[in-house]
Design a protein that fits this description.
The chain is mostly helical and about 100 residues long. The protein has 4 helices and no strands. The termini are far apart.
């Protein structure tokens, strides 16, 4: 008994693919928002190296969603900018105090 393998014609169900992409985008947005919350929490607890690491991870992941224009993603860049500004402020204040 032989099994015939059907050739891949490249046809896909666009609805399924779009749904899968939308779900993946939502999951990525939720993950990045949780990571940002964690970054702000670490920074507020003076865990600056850990907060910097969170910032770096988000900055690497965010470009993966650069083409997504949903409310979940449009709020990420400003929040990431706010975290960077907060960390820069703390670093600058610490440098001034050390001088």
């Amino acid at each position: 008994m032989s099994t015939q393998i059907q050739p891949d014609t490249g046809e896909r169900d666009p609805g399924k693919l779009a749904g899968l992409r939308a779900r993946t985008d939502r999951d990525l947005a939720a993950l990045l928002h949780r990571m940002l919350d964690r970054g702000f929490a670490l920074a507020s607890q003076a865990e600056y190296p850990d907060a910097e690491a969170v910032y770096a991870r988000i900055a690497r992941l965010l470009p993966l969603a650069s083409s997504v224009e949903t409310p979940e993603f449009t709020t990420l860049r400003p929040r990431l900018h706010d975290l960077r500004a907060y960390l820069d402020e703390v670093t600058l204040a610490g440098a001034c105090l050390a001088s």
